[in-house]
Amino acid sequence: MPRSVNSVASRHRRKKLLSRTKGQFGRRKNVWTVAKNSWEKGQTYAYRDRRNKKRNFRSLWIQRINAGVREHGMSYSAFMGKLHEKNIEISRKTLADLAMNNPEAFKAIVDAVK
Questions:
Q1: What is the CATH number for 103?
Q2: Residue 65's Cα: distance from chain center in Å?
Q3: Which of 90, 85, 47, 46 has its CA nearest to residue 65?
Q4: What is the DSSP letter of 15?
Q5: DSSP readout, the chain?
Q6: What whole-number distance in Å separates Cα of residue 27 and Cα of residue 94?
Q7: SS3 state of residue 36
Q8: Distance CA 113, CA 79 (A)
Q9: Is residue 2 part of a domain?
Q10: Distance (Å, rounded) from C-alpha 77 to C-alpha 96?
Q11: CA 27 to chain centre
């Protein structure tokens, strides 16, 4: 009896992966093994960078807060320490946004902390 292989499902699986690599350069888009490796590596990078993105944004917020606070004669670490002393709970994201887009409100916070 001949061996039965489900070629319909196999072709569907390959076509699905090749459609995901559409738009890539050279053999990455049309050669099965190269496309498969390229797609898997891309998924690894995507997983890793979803975490790195959070780190990058936190460091950006810290830089913006530091720049805003230095205009008022304080350092970032002193500012954050005094914020915690006064029990003012504002996220770094919000503080960075205020420092960039609403300097008056940010100055009010700095004055409240001093």
A1: 1.10.1900.20
A2: 19
A3: 90
A4: H
A5: -PPP--HHHHHHHHHHHHHHTTT--GGGGT-HHHHHHHHHHHHHHHHHHHHHHHHHHHHHHHHHHHHHHHTTT--HHHHHHHHHHTT----HHHHHHHHHH-HHHHHHHHHHH-
A6: 46
A7: helix
A8: 7
A9: no
A10: 14
A11: 29
Answer yes or no: is 62 within a domain: yes
pLDDT tens-place string over residues 49-91: 999 999 999 999 999 999 999 999 999 999 999 999 999 899 9
Number of domains observed in the structure of the chain:
1
pLDDT band at 5 (very low <50, low <70, confident <90, very high): confident
* pTM for the whole structure: 0.77
Within-domain flag for 3: no
Tracing tokens 């807060």 back to the chain, one arrives at 65
Q: Which residues contact 112 (CB under 8 A, 6 or more apart)?
A: 86, 88
Identify whether 61 is part of a domain. Answer: yes
Q: Which residue has the tokens 């890539």?
A: 24
In 3D, which of 105, 102, 99 has the Cα closest to residue 71?
Answer: 99
Residue 32 is part of which domain span?
8-113
